[in-house]
Amino acid sequence: MTRIDIALGERSYPVLVGHGLMNEPSAWNRWLPDTPLVVFSNEKVAPLYLDALARVLPDHELHPLVLPDGEAEKSFDNFRRAVDFLAERGIRRDACLLALGGGVIGDLCGFVAATWMRGIRFVQFPTTLLAQVDASVGGKTAINIPQGKNLVGAFHQPSLVVADTATLDTLDPREYRAGLAEIVKCGAIRDADFLDGIEARCEALLARDVECVVDVVGRSVAHKAAVVAEDEHETGVRATLNFGHTFGHAIEALSGYTRFLHGEAVAIGMVTATRLSELRGLCPTGVADRLSATLQRLGLPVSIPDDMTADDLMSLMSLDKKNTASSRRLVLLRDAGQAVIHADSRPEQVREAIEASRTPTE
Ligand code: NAD
Ligand code: GLY
Questions:
Q1: Going by CA atoms, what residue is nearest to atom 1 of ligand 1?
Q2: N or C: which end of the chain has fewer CB within 10 A?
Q3: Which ligand approaches the C-alpha of residue 177 most closely?
Q4: Which one, of 41, 16, 46, 18, lies nearest residue 29 by Cα?
Q5: Where are the beta strands (DSSP E) in the chain?
Q6: Which value, to the nearest 10 degrees, does the dihedral of the CA atoms of residues 299, 169, 20, 52 take?
Q7: Is 238 near ligand 2, meaning CB less than 6 Å away?
């Protein structure tokens, strides 16, 4: 088992990464309070793992709340359903919420924990690769509203994250590959050696080799931990975790959130952002092609579809949360492993990068 501490003073917490951790409660149950646990899960994950969790927590009073599956369920309606559930069960401030699922369940559960009685404890048991390396760590919680994704939320840190990589065994291959995009992102923005290591281990990653997966999940979490400890509320360096996301969010939004998974859109966005970095003369030529080749080997898309116009994408990009009233910002690369936050000052280059990302180069 690997333990990574998120160092945030009195709100510090451990992220535990290991294969089969759920069945080893002695590794993590000391961080659970001896109070009722409300388990948020969904109709896909609960039949797979809720009984196993209940078995290893025989002394806890468990209250399962099983919601429908899907991004659309990270909604105000389910926030309301959840707080009604807490009220009906008489859940008090000393209770603890537990998210058993992917990023959708984690974000919703975290937001309920942030707001119930002005904030109660919650713990994360992420069961997707994307949630293990990204969504469960760092305390961003949110729900969606019709006007946009994650527009209503709060920073609220969990008190424990248990990333059992054995739960990934049941994950759909496409969902698994989408999580790999966020792992590549960690290498691309902070660690060229890690990126080299991913390139060298594409086949092992795709085969879900246990040792390799535990290693890359742990190293990705360690990167996120360092960034979050430095900039919990995203006033600076944390924005680099959004590398590829400004283009990616526009691609997701333009296709109605149905054509691409988040990680797939981020893969396309990372390649486009790197092409833009090269066009700006920030980054050596060839980094974008190399990143594109790695992502393709991992089974991820890298091209902007022809039916998405640059005008439409750029208009959606202007709504990005990183922008302020006076400036538009993009995360670019100085080189593989070195991200930089840059003013989005040259729309003609953004357009050129979009057009250059329409055809895979390999
Ligand atoms: P998800 O939660 O929808 O999970 C993807 C699919 O996999 C779902 O159908 C889910 O039911 C299923 N699933 C989950 N675990 C499984 C398992 N072990 N076996 C079989 N099926 C399983 O999606 P996601 O990709 O985990 O997360 C995406 C969400 O995370 C988005 O809402 C995004 O906004 C959010 N997010 C949050 C942060 C953050 O910092 N808070 C960061 C990145 C993404
Ligand atoms: N997913 C980006 C962040 O947590 O900041």
A1: 102
A2: C
A3: 1
A4: 16
A5: 2-6, 13-18, 37-42, 62-67, 96-101, 121-126, 140-145, 148-155, 160-164, 329-335, 338-343
A6: 140
A7: yes
255 C-alpha to ligand 1 centroid (Å): 19
Active site amino acids: 118, 140, 182, 224, 234, 238, 242, 245, 249, 262
- pLDDT at residue 108 in the model: 98
Look at residue 328 in the predicted model and tell me its pLDDT.
Answer: 74
Distance 89 CA to ligand 2 centre (A): 32
Domains of the chain are 2-170 (3.40.50.1970), 173-356 (1.20.1090.10)
Contacts of residue 239, Cβ cutoff 8 Å, sequence gap at least 6:
322, 329, 331, 341
Number of Cβ atoms within 10 Å of the Cβ of 37: 23
Is 263 within 8 Å of 179 (Cβ atoms)? yes
Residue 147 phi/psi, 5° resolution? Answer: -75, -15
At residue 258, φ and ψ (nearest 5 deg) are -115, -30
**pLDDT of 362:** 44
Taking the C-alpha atoms of residue 333 and residue 68, their distance in angstroms, rounded to an integer, is 39
pLDDT score, position 148: 83
Closest ligand 2 atom to the C-alpha of 242?
2
Contact 138, 156 (CB under 8 A): no
CB atoms within 10 A of CB 303: 16
To 10 degrees, the CA torsion angle through 322, 328, 333, 338?
A: -50
Mean pLDDT for back-to-back runs of 10 residues, the chain (362 residues): 98 98 97 97 98 97 98 96 98 98 98 98 98 98 91 97 98 98 98 98 98 98 98 97 96 90 97 97 97 98 96 87 68 98 88 89 44
- Our CA angle for 50, 55, 57, nearest 5°, is 95
